[in-house]
Q: What sequence folds into this?
């Protein structure tokens, strides 16, 4: 023990390991963006901007001398829609000729840039600040002094002007405001950012985004696919402890303007895409439209005022629709959070009449049934295209604002034959209340985590290759992957033994595992009292789903007449043995006899640890050892295929 | 190392008539070709995969070694940056579930050292260490910290905040700090420290019969006992039991000290609380009186116990016997010297040597005598034989004649 007195704080810098890098993760959607940073607790958290919004609308509005960015700008859509720019992300990096011209007139129209050829731009009316008064001349000379006049001096007023903004400039403005919010939260300068890009983005679009972000004064560490950002969050420790290491994950991203689905193979944290699809046929906008129509019809019923929306006719109705569109944001959030009545109230909706209406979750789900159904159909077709049975999907992750709707999950689970115990954030109860499974913040948090990881790679020669792997168009990430599951079969008979296999099947390296791979499992084996032998057969198997049609008697209601027994499909996971590579035989040395009075009393057990290493070539090495000092060991080597 | 998954399965017994299957294939089915699957460049697992591929040529063992060395370097860096230089060796102690579940209302029964994570120091903990340990625990268990860090558990689909009794352990910490920083209260607690009582019970249950029956080693048995009790001494340092070759003065000093042991041990900790509800002065006085007499009784018991222990030790001490014997011999030698007029210089060893020599001489003599006897006997027999022969010869001559 040292007798050195404790110093009461030092002026030295704190340890580098304890301070987290000022990195911001940005989920840059077409309609909404969110930002995440590392908080003092060391967790990536989605933070609110100065308006208290975690879901920041991608909108910029010009009103006189003011520029509104974010949710304030959406309010300008009601009366100042010509000067309000929305939906600019998807146009980033595109040529004017590539953009479909049937843009609705809900916000500022996209025009051809007057000077740059084939460049989309926005024209907004602004007020330029008045020219500053001329500096007072320092010496009093009679030459420069204008003659005294009787007319009053004109007041210096801002001058109306037109401003042309390219899509890239708009993006830069917007990203700069996001980064500023993050800097205000952190209290220090942001050193780098990771941004999401949709899977539909081409390379030129990614270039344009990177350029726009750099122009906003932030270093782009990595551009992440939305699925990749979701994968970071869902492979982190805090996500869900009960999910298996090796799992097949379906990411359902129902955003404002599109539905993108991604099927991922996650193997001990390593993820790659098995199949993906994106469609604009199903979107949050459709849900909005249905809800707006519902409230408009309710308004007409209550006030006898005619109102046509979606599409609306006339300027008054257009403004009404814009007002409703703003108001239902709140309604949708209420529906996501609770099943009770969600209100929608707008002052002076049309003709000076106020409106307050309510909808409960059940009614809402009925209304948007068609959207849910088409989302479920898209999921089914993706699974069919990937050749993977829905029963083999272990986890569903929801992303995007509409992903918060519990009705969507209900619809998916009822119309796609997922397993009953499929892991979802709803089942774990992590969606509401800012939990880890909150679909609106998953992407931003993933970006922040990834940003910290990339920023942690030292910037020296030795790691240059490593850093390069995080750039685009790199070939390091193309890997070989196993096509079938390999594992051990412990032969024997018993109550929990699959009779068709003749033993207990322990999968070790699953199919679709990136190579090289190393896995180790540990389990107990029962031993015979006289001959303490353990046999571990190494097999390659195919997992498939057997569909069995079972007639299930439906419980008969009292007043109903006899119902026909319903035919129900029951799915079983089936393992088919394909090839055997050999057997590892052990003479157990460390068997332990169970004491006590339980059902296992007097039986002998030992614990074995099995390690598989599959090389990139496909060569397999199996090491088996009995757990403990001086335990029996065994091994098996299988040569690479085709050698 | 690769993370080992522990599976909740128990494989069945190998059947008696088991015959291993014949390997039906010599290799795995061909993996998907390179580039068929594109890894998502995200996450720690991917970074490790890249490092394995780029820096270690897909060799798991070399990567493991690299990761180990990296971790060690990091730990060293942390240690060098003052990780544990300032904490006076307090360190981090494990907090078992039953410790965290302590009830602050039962604070009298809790182990204050364990609560503050000082169980390896106990009564030896310095004030500085207590301060540091308390600060560490507060940083970890302050209710303000806990509310945000512990996630809500979900039970049957309902979010339940399981931290209803959030600050219970924090209260325990505060109580422990209050007790250990107050010298008087700490003394009271140390007097009846639960771990001390356990050890005490273990060690002092020894009796003279036990000791003799089991043929225990004297020093191994009694040294820890006195080491244990030495903490209560007002005068420090305390003389230890010592070794077999201790001088007489040392041995005497030891017993002298322990017979006059000045202990600060007291038993206020076990006082009965005055009945909460009653504000009657008589009640209070009655309880106080009882407590006082109880304390005195316990103190008396404790002193008596220690005294009997010292008695026992004294009775079993081999050194005392040695000393007594030496004294006796010295006395006898003196006496003998006085009688013989010789200086009482002969020591026991010399005496023994003399005795041995005498014995040997006697033995030798005896042996010689024995040999001589045997010789005489032999000669006698030979003479008899010769006489017999002569007689026979004479008889034969007579017959022939």
A:
């Amino acid at each position: 023990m040292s007798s050195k007195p404790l110093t009461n704080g030092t002026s030295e810098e704190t340890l580098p390991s304890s301070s987290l890098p000022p990195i911001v993760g940005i989920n840059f959607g077409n309609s909404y963006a969110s930002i995440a940073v590392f908080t003092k607790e060391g967790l990536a958290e989605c933070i609110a901007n100065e308006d208290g919004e975690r879901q920041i609308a991608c909108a910029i509005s010009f009103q006189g001398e003011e520029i509104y960015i974010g949710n304030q700008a959406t309010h300008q859509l009601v009366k100042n829609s010509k000067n309000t720019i929305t939906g600019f992300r998807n146009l980033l990096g595109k040529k004017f000729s590539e953009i479909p011209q049937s843009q609705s007139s809900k916000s500022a129209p996209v025009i051809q840039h007057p000077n740059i050829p084939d460049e989309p731009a926005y024209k907004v009316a602004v007020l330029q600040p008045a020219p500053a008064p001329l500096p007072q001349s320092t010496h009093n000379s009679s030459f420069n002094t204008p003659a005294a006049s009787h007319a009053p001096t004109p007041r210096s007023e801002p001058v109306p002007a037109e401003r042309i903004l390219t899509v890239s400039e708009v993006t830069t403005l917007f990203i700069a405001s996001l980064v500023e919010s993050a800097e205000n939260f952190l209290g220090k300068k942001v050193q780098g950012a990771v941004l999401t890009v949709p899977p539909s983005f081409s390379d030129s679009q990614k270039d344009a985004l990177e350029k726009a972000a750099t122009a906003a004064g932030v270093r782009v560490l990595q551009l992440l696919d939305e699925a990749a950002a979701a994968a970071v969050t869902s492979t982190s420790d805090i996500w869900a402890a009960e999910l298996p290491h090796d799992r097949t994950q379906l990411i359902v991203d129902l955003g404002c303007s599109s539905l993108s689905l991604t099927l991922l193979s996650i193997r001990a944290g390593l993820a790659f895409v098995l199949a993906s699809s994106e469609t604009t046929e199903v979107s949050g906008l459709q849900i909005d439209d249905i809800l707006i129509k519902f409230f408009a019809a309710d308004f007409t019923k209550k006030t006898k005022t005619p109102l046509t929306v979606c599409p609306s006719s006339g300027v008054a109705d257009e403004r009404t629709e814009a007002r409703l569109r703003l108001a239902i944001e709140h309604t949708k959030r209420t529906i996501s959070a609770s099943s009770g009545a969600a209100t929608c109230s707008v002052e002076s909706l049309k003709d000076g009449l106020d409106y307050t209406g309510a909808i409960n979750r059940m009614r809402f789900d009925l209304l948007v049934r068609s959207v849910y159904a088409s989302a479920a159909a898209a999921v089914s077709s993706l699974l069919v295209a990937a050749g993977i049975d829905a029963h083999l999907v272990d986890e569903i992750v929801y992303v995007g604002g509409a992903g918060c709707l519990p009705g969507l999950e209900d619809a998916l689970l009822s119309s796609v034959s997922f397993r009953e115990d499929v892991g979802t954030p709803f089942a774990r109860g992590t969606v509401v209340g800012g939990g880890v499974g909150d679909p609106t913040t998953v992407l931003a948090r993933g970006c922040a985590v990834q940003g910290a990881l990339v920023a942690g790679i030292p910037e020296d020669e030795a790691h240059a290759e490593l850093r390069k792997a995080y750039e685009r168009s790199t070939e390091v990430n193309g890997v070989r992957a196993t096509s079938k599951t390999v594992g051990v079969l412990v032969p024997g008979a018993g109550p929990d033994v699959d009779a068709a296999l003749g033993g207990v099947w322990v999968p070790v390296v699953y199919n679709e595992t990136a190579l090289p791979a190393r896995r180790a499992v540990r389990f107990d084996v029962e031993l015979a009292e006289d001959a303490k032998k353990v046999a571990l057969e190494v097999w390659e198997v195919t997992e498939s789903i057997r569909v069995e049609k079972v007639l299930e008697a439906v419980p008969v209601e009292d007043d109903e007449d006899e119902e026909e027994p319903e035919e129900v499909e029951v799915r079983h996971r089936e393992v088919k043995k394909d090839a055997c590579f050999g057997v590892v035989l052990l003479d157990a040395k460390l068997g332990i006899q169970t004491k006590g009075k339980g059902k296992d009393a007097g039986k002998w057990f030992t614990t074995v640890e099995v390690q598989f290493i599959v090389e990139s070539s496909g060569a397999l090495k199996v090491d088996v050892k009995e757990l403990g000092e001086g335990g029996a060991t065994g091994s098996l080597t299988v040569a690479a295929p085709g050698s | 190392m690769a993370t080992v998954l522990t599976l909740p399965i128990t494989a069945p017994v190998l059947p008696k008539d088991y015959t291993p299957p014949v390997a039906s294939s010599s290799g795995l089915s061909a993996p998907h070709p390179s580039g068929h699957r594109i890894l998502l460049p995200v996450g720690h697992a991917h970074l490790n995969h890249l490092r394995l591929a780029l820096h270690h040529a897909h060799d798991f063992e070399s990567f493991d070694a690299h990761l180990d060395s990296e971790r060690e370097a990091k730990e060293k860096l942390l240690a060098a940056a003052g990780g544990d230089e300032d904490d006076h060796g307090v360190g981090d102690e494990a907090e078992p579930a039953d410790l965290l579940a302590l009830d602050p209302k039962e604070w009298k029964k809790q182990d204050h050292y364990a609560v503050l994570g000082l169980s390896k120091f106990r009564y030896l903990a310095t004030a500085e260490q207590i301060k540091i340990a308390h600060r560490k625990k507060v940083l970890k268990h302050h209710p303000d910290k806990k509310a945000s860090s512990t996630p809500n558990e979900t039970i049957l689909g309902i979010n339940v905040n399981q931290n209803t009794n959030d600050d219970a352990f924090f209260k325990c910490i505060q109580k422990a700090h209050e007790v250990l920083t107050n010298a008087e209260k700490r003394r009271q607690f140390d007097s009846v420290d639960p771990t001390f009582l356990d050890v005490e019970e273990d060690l002092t249950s020894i009796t003279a019969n036990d000791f003799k029956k089991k043929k225990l080693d004297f020093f191994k048995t009694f040294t820890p006992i006195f080491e244990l009790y030495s903490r209560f001494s007002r005068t420090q340092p305390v003389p230890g039991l010592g070794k077999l070759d201790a001088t007489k003065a040392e041995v005497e000093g030891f017993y002298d000290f322990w017979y006059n042991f000045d202990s600060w041990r007291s038993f206020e900790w076990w006082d009965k609380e005055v009945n909460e509800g009653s504000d009657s002065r008589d009640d209070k006085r009655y309880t106080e009186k009882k407590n006082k007499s109880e304390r005195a009784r316990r103190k008396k018991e404790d002193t008596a116990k220690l005294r009997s222990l010292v008695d026992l030790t004294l009775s079993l001490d081999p050194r005392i016997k040695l000393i007594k014997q030496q004294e006796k011999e010295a006395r006898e030698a003196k006496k003998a010297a006085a009688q013989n007029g010789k200086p009482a210089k002969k020591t026991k060893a010399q005496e023994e040597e003399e005795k041995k020599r005498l014995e040997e001489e006697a033995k030798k003599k005896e042996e010689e005598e024995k040999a001589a006897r045997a010789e005489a006997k032999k000669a006698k027999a030979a003479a008899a034989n010769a006489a017999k022969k002569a007689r026979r010869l004479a008889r034969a001559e007579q017959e022939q004649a």
Remarks:
- Chain B has 15 helices and four strands.
- The two ends of chain B are 120 Å apart (CA to CA).
- The mean pLDDT of chain B is 81.
